[in-house]
Amino acid sequence: MIWGVALLWVLPGEPIRARGLSERERYLAVARLRTNNAGIRNTHFKSSQVKELLVDVKFWLLFWIATLCMIANGPISTFLPIIINSFGFGPFNSLLLLMPCGFYSGTMCLFFCWCCYKFKNVRSWLFCVAETIAILSCLLLVLLPRDKKGPLLFGAIILPVVGASYGVLMSIQVANTAGYTKKSIASSGLFIGYCVGNFIGPLVFRPQDAPRYIPGFTVVIITSFISIVLMVIYRVICARDNRKRDEVGAESFNNAFNDDLTDKTNAQFRYIY
Question: Does this entry carry the keyword Membrane (predicted)?
């Protein structure tokens, strides 16, 4: 809570209000945002952008992807210590063996961020890689004998990669949504999907299914696979829309940032995937 208050006080809402920047530096920061065609300077609520979002298939794809992929967070946040305990470790040792999970998850998040920065249009593929790792983890935890503690522990440690996949998902949503109102509602919608997935996750891991939790891991495998399919569809749609705009062509429009155009109404906008 203290950290949140500190960020609210220190971080500016927009570059033009950033402390420590000269007038020229503020202008350059705003100009840099303008090149993104994000259209966030106009902060008035627009119902037309809400209507546009509600019929935008790309938003709904991301919403369901967030919901499905976050079901895997159920065993991570609630049942992972219990699962490791079922391998034959004591409660204290199970907690100690969870330590590599946090390091691994953080490292994967940083690595995915680096890949997104270094390579063009790899975000959807990175998401698919993360979800494939999650599927592999579930298969190891379900199929391996209980006496194979090393491979079982490896499967448990690599499961938290879903945190990195959701980070990639958020970056896709933010980059591919323009318009102040549309971007705000879309971010909230993605978070709702995140919450729904986290709500469902623990419910599919029932005490009577211990120690393998086969039904729960089966649900995670299926939902992770479906999220991969939906992400591939999302990538195809974005690539198709970019290709159509490139074929039509349009004159440069430098006021998209000021006029609060959405990704649909700004012909210069290009989706990343």
Answer: yes
- Prior bond to 211 cis, omega within 30? yes
Unique residue bearing structure tokens 């960020």: 7
- Residue 173 CA to residue 98 CA, distance in Å, equals 31
pLDDT tier for residue 35 given thresholds of 50, 70 and 90: low
Distance from C-alpha of 138 to C-alpha of 152, rounded to nearest angstrom: 10
What domains, with CATH codes, occur in the chain?
Answer: 36-259 (1.20.1250.20)
pLDDT band at 241 (very low <50, low <70, confident <90, very high): very high
pLDDT in tens, 210-228: 788 899 999 999 999 999 9
| Helix 57-69 × helix 123-143 angle, to 10° | 30
Instruction: Read off the pLDDT of residues 79-111 as tens digits, 9 standing for 90 and up.
Output: 777 777 777 777 777 778 888 888 998 999 999
Tokens at residue 204, please? 């599919």
pLDDT at 254: 52
Question: Token digits for 2?
Answer: 């203290």
